């Protein structure tokens, strides 16, 4: 039996799988806390030993996101064209994009403060305007910039500018233009160049390990390896594919779509794409998940005389009905449990709604949406469609895709104290707000009972739903991604791996039933969980052992 050891050295845990290269089976798997505080090799070796299988070092394949992973800055020409194209390419290379600038560089203070590991210097289509690219390259040269630069701009001046940078002592790698023509995005060469720079210049300089052994083992940044695995799976299956990886600090979304020939996006379309939501995570950024869920209408905050609490600086608006028990909603809600008087309305749609009866200080609309009147004074407003359900009195209803924390079985003493005297809508928010704060304060927290595990799954469902929404709709004013034809939805992350199959499926069902906002989310995808870390493993094996990579994915994901 021919074996390979595939390892992912993450910021929190180091995961190892031993793969049979002949049949694609996972022979053994283990994990160990990442030992970044001393030497990451200690944790890697411990995880390898825990498998009970000895694999020669020549057959070790390692990816890493420890030490912050790969920090990338993008310097481009126009914010909506080459800078945006560079940003997309950087994400596809597994980078954490920490800075994006467009236009001629002046002060380098912001660029320096972002502390990038690599700068992706882009600008201009091939044969087009090169003035900004020339200015920016010469500006870095004059500053004797020492961070490695990947130059992937206008081919007409690329070699000349690479020479200018090298003569100033700037480490530079020149490669093909990321945007050779308007609407044509070519990420491959720049992605490969960024990977090479990461391996040759970055991973050894993060202080993760003493000596050269660890850098010599690392083949890719973890997100780069995962995207490669996703690409292998998509090529093998055919059709569209979506992956959601819910981590402690971020939620990553990967998608592979079938090209349709459109060129309406001037920055080009990434048919194989990754987005990173740095504010959506299970531990460090858990409070941000709750805030984002409020903004997305997936949660409802505590109510008062002026309506629901507003997060992230968003301003609520005041209705004109008498304050009462309103059925508050997310993107589209169903009405409350009974008709009321003077403002006791089931709230609907994007707007927080109210009855139209006159009164004082009614319920506020959330995140600045104005309240809209129901059709009759003092009666329930019309129901929205397939979205969060409003509540009246003590009736508990599902809060958006998935289930509310109360429906997930959250029943801790702390939750009871936080929820005392509140409506059930408020109670869920109180439970999640307190739990998220506790997780951010103690990132190493491990749930010890069913109630805490239920809270973790609820946070994961919110993070996954919001991340896929953002991936589908794209940044403000930009084209999104049409995920409706995705055949497979793969869930990844510790919270899903450690759940029962039914519990994990419930989290992914939150994504698959999120139709309220009209986002182009999957319509009929099959949900599966990457329990054995095979996406990263397949990505690591793809170059040297393509058949084993395909067999591994077929055995553990396609047939799941």
TrEMBL record:
Residues 370-383 have a biased composition (Low complexity). Residues 302-399 are annotated as: Disordered. Residues 333-343, 352-362 have a biased composition (Gly residues). This is Uncharacterized protein (TIGR01319 family).
């Amino acid at each position: 039996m021919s074996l390979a050891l595939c390892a992912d050295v993450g910021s929190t845990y180091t995961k190892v799988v031993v793969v049979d290269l002949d049949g694609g089976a996972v022979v053994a798997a283990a994990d160990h806390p990442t030992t970044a505080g001393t030497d990451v090799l200690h944790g890697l070796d411990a995880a390898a030993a825990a498998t009970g299988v000895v694999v020669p070092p020549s057959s070790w394949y390692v990816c890493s996101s420890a030490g912050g992973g790969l920090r990338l800055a993008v310097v481009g020409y126009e914010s909506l064209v080459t800078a945006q194209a560079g940003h997309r390419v950087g994400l596809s290379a597994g980078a954490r994009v920490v800075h994006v600038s467009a236009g001629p560089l002046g002060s380098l203070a912001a660029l320096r403060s972002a502390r990038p590991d690599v700068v992706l210097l882009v600008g201009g289509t091939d044969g087009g305007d090169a003035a900004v690219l020339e200015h920016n390259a010469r500006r870095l040269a004059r500053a004797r910039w020492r961070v490695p630069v990947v130059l992937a701009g206008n081919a007409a001046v690329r070699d000349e500018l690479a020479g200018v940078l090298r003569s100033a002592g700037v480490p530079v790698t020149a490669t093909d233009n990321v945007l050779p023509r308007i609407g044509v995005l070519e990420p491959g060469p720049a992605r490969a160049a960024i990977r090479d720079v990461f391996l040759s210049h970055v991973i050894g300089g993060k202080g993760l390990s003493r000596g050269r052994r660890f850098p010599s083992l690392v083949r890719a940044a973890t997100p780069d390896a995962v995207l490669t695995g996703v690409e292998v799976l998509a090529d093998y299956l055919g059709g569209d594919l979506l992956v959601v990886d819910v981590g402690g600090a971020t939620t990553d979304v990967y998608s592979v779509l079938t090209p349709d020939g459109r060129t309406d996006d001037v920055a080009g379309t990434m048919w194989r794409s990754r987005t990173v939501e740095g504010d959506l995570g299970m531990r460090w950024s858990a409070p941000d998940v709750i805030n984002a869920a409020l903004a997305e209408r997936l949660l409802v905050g505590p109510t008062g005389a002026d309506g629901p609490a507003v997060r992230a600086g968003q301003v609520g608006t005041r209705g004109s009905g008498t304050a009462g028990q309103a059925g508050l909603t997310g993107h589209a809600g169903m009405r409350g449990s009974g008709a009321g008087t003077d403002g006791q309305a089931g709230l609907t749609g994007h707007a927080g709604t109210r009855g139209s009866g006159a009164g004082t200080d009614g319920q506020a609309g959330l995140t600045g949406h104005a309240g809209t009147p129901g059709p009759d004074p003092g009666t329930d407003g019309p129901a929205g469609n397939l979205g969060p359900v409003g509540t009246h009195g003590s009736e508990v209803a599902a809060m958006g895709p998935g289930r509310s924390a109360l429906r997930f079985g959250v029943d801790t003493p702390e939750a009871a104290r936080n929820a005392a005297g509140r409506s059930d809508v408020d109670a869920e928010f109180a439970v999640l707000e307190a739990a998220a704060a506790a997780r951010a304060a103690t990132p190493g927290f491990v749930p010890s009972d069913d109630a805490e595990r239920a809270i973790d799954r609820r946070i994961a469902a919110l993070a996954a739903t919001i991340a896929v929404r953002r991936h589908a709709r794209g940044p403000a004013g930009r084209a999104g991604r049409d995920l409706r034809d995705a055949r497979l939805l793969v869930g990844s992350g510790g919270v899903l791996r450690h759940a029962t199959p039914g519990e994990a499926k419930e989290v992914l069902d939150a994504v698959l039933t999120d139709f309220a906002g009209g986002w182009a989310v999957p319509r009929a995808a099959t949900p599966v969980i990457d329990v054995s870390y095979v996406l990263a493993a397949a990505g690591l094996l793809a170059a040297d052992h393509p058949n084993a990579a395909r067999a591994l994915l077929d055995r553990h994901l396609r047939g799941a």
